[in-house]
Amino acid sequence: MTLVLLATQTLHLSACSYGLLLAGGALGSVLGGLVNARIVARFGALPALVTALVANVFIFVAIGLSPNAIVLGVLLALNGLATTMWSIVAVSLRQQLVPAALLGRVNGVYRMLGWGLIPLGALTGGLVAHEFGLRAAYPIAGGLRGLALLVALPVIVAALSSGRARRA
After folding, report:
1. Vertex 144, ends 38 and 160: CA angle to 5°?
2. pTM for the whole thing?
3. What DSSP designation does 98 have?
4. How far apart are CA 122 and CA 116, in angstroms?
5. What is the CATH number of the domain that holds 16?
6. Residue 10's domain spans which residues?
7. Total domain count, the chain
8. 167 in a domain, yes or no?
9. Does 88 map to a domain?
């Protein structure tokens, strides 16, 4: 993962400081889990889902531009919050939208693709970082996330607008 290199080589953090940086991301994830239900209840599943995905786009771009460890720590905490929000809402919606007889298969394919593509993403991020610098991988990843969101957004909106999904 390029994050450890960005933190230790570019921002010159010690191993202990890097651990604190990761703790900031974990803290954001815990906060995301704690506030998720209230945010979805207030704004709805679709706005919460889209906001989390859009936030991830901007956060990834900003990680590549982060000037110091404090900014990077805040970005990692925000990323943890947004990713947890997205994850909880996405799983809830999948359970609501997918027929019970297909839910196991859909979850299996989802996990296979999600977890199975992580090594490919890590390899690609490493190659981008090697060719263009450690910071470059993050804005490129943010841009790709943005493009993926633009492609997926009509499908997400159609599925949630069909009335089949209750509040997540």
Report:
1. 40
2. 0.87
3. S
4. 11
5. 1.20.1250.20
6. 2-161
7. 1
8. no
9. yes
